[in-house]
Amino acid sequence: MTVLATDDLAARGAARIAWIRSRMPLLAAARDDLGRSRPFAGHRIGMSLHLEPKTAVLLETLVAGGAEIVATGNHGSTQDDVVAHLRAAGMTVFGSRDDSLDQHHANVASVLEAAPDILLDNGADLAAGIVARGETARVLGGTEETTSGGDRLRGELAGRVPFPVIVINDSLLKAIGENKHAVGQSVVESFMRLTNLMVPGRRFVVAGYGWCGRGVAHYLRQLGGKVAVVEVDALKAFEAALDGFRVASLLDLADWGEVFITATGRPGVLGAEFFARVADGAVLANCGHFPWEIDVPELMAGAASVIRMDEAIERVELPDGRHVVLLAGGRMMNLAGREPKGNSLESMDLGFLLQTLSLERIATRAAALAPGAQPVPDDIDREIARRMLRAMGADR
Ligand code: NAI
């Protein structure tokens, strides 16, 4: 047996990436295809996205297709061993885990100074930077990973981005594969990992029955949880009822639920009225992107005391003798605590193949696309669904 050396950063990065790469079959097949067609030859792709092992496999795939890479991460999430590995593989990568916010902005500027002609963006930082510099003419197009970046492109940047940007988050395939099934699995895993509590027989309330909420509700029930849903959209509430969940208002469920999980993307879903009625000992957690779904400032303002019980667990004593338990300070629970796993490898394989084929579309057919933000072309969604079905052996 070969024991991999882990005594230097690049080797440690390489060792960690090996497992991830081995479980991303869609990207592996894409590396073979793109290695033959080389759609990115002569193109420089500028990237701003979390620098972690799964992203490294995406970058390797783009390099196999002929791309030159100039990359940086997001503030605070850069993994230094992954960066060291990517640099050793010949990519230009800026940033490290301990960068200040100013340094992070300088890293983004360095990516733009390298004059990429294709952008792989996260939160529209690169697109906004190119617009601010007046350098849009040399950009062929790009992709945007997030909803918030898509909102920026359609809001403050509307009409100012003359090149096409494919918004990965607007894909139906991603909604099914990631928001529903991967978030569902990882939120349930995170509840168990953070609290070590039992799921079977426990009463859960899921607020929001959109893509993420559906997944969370379904996976909790699969493990024997009793699940109720709170939903403001009548059609989705109807769907939840037909899916067999109890559907009621948050205040009606306040003294029924033992665990409340928000998945709405909206602020203040669990607020003062709810805190006044919630049952003693209830656990409050959030899986939405922003840390605002549980009104933590309101909760803390009314608290008699707060006891930190674990890295991601706070016991909040209320003046009338009840207490609630807050997970991860109300931040995204599946990225919190020791060794957060995030979403499954397969869902990221799928999401990064969406990135790869969308970037290929930009490299080969940008002129045929409309300028500005747009959804993933339907044929790409369907092609990846077919490939994923084959990779899963869904017919066996
Ligand atoms: P979605 O738009 O499909 O669903 C949100 C649902 O919440 C909608 O059905 C809406 O009617 C409902 N809602 C809004 N306000 C409500 C309220 N006050 N009470 C009850 N229901 C309410 O959005 P999706 O895709 O489910 O995303 C939800 C959040 O999760 C977003 O913030 C998203 O960014 C985040 N997200 C988190 C991930 C993670 O890894 N934790 C991964 C992907 C998305």
Automatic annotation (TrEMBL):
Tell me the cofactors it needs.
Answer: NAD(+)
**Sorted alphabetically, which InterPro entries does this protein's record hold?**
Adenosylhomocyst_ase-like_sf, Adenosylhomocysteinase-like, Ado_hCys_hydrolase_NAD-bd, NAD(P)-bd_dom_sf, S-Ado-L-homoCys_hydrolase_CS
Annotated GO MF terms: hydrolase activity
The protein's Enzyme Commission number: 3.3.1.1
SUPFAM superfamilies the UniProt entry points to = Formate/glycerate dehydrogenase catalytic domain-like, NAD(P)-binding Rossmann-fold domains
Spell out the Pfam families in the cross-references: AdoHcyase, AdoHcyase_NAD
Keyword NAD among UniProt keywords: yes
- Domain of life per record: Bacteria
Its keywords, alphabetically, are: Hydrolase, NAD, One-carbon metabolism
* Keyword Hydrolase on entry: yes
Matching SMART domains: AdoHcyase, AdoHcyase_NAD
Span of domain S-adenosyl-L-homocysteine hydrolase NAD binding: 179-340
NCBIfam families xref list: PRK05476.2-3
> What family does this chain come from, according to its entry?
Belongs to the adenosylhomocysteinase family.
What this protein is called in its record is Adenosylhomocysteinase
Organism whose genome encodes this protein: Protaetiibacter mangrovi
